[in-house]
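Sample intake sheet
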Amino acid sequence: MHNRYYSYLVKILDILNIKDFFVSKLLYNKAGLFCLNIINKIRWQYVDLTIIIWPPAKNVFDEIQSDIAKEHEILKIREFEVAEINFKSFVEDIYAIDHASQNKIKNKLDELKRNPLKMRLLIVRFLKPEIYAVDLLNRVRCRDVNNLKINIRKKYESKITNYIYDLIIHSTEIDYQTNDIYNLFKKYDIYDFKKIK
């Protein structure tokens, strides 16, 4: 929902020739972002985020899960597969949730596609997360999950054949995006989760 309203707003501002002013002076105003970040710090005492471990890392699912569990509580663990015919659009839809560019997806899609297309989904609780606003629409990111992904990638990149950046792990940035992930599972008929926890 956030995406659609933001897109409409940008189109209207573009038509009115005030998009540059809006973006530079209002959308990323430092004082406004500072205030939002204080509110976000109070608002989120914890956040439950969805982490997906991609098919190229299937041989180290358990190790990655164990590393995450050392620092954070894992609330749910599921394994699932996506039909090969749906994989490209599934990945595109996953990345659309956090506004990733098509280039980011295109550059790694072929390497993500490793049979079987088995993935592991974790719901992970981050206590006292550092949630920061990227703009005054309060689109937010979680620094804690980003740091976790960086550490996992560094540790496991040497264990992934033909590794390129970001073939191991993906996550949502805020709790309401988890519903978007579950809606994708419905869209792609992914009901047959292997329940691990």
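Comment: Residues 2 and 139 are 8 Å apart (CA to CA). The mean pLDDT is 83.
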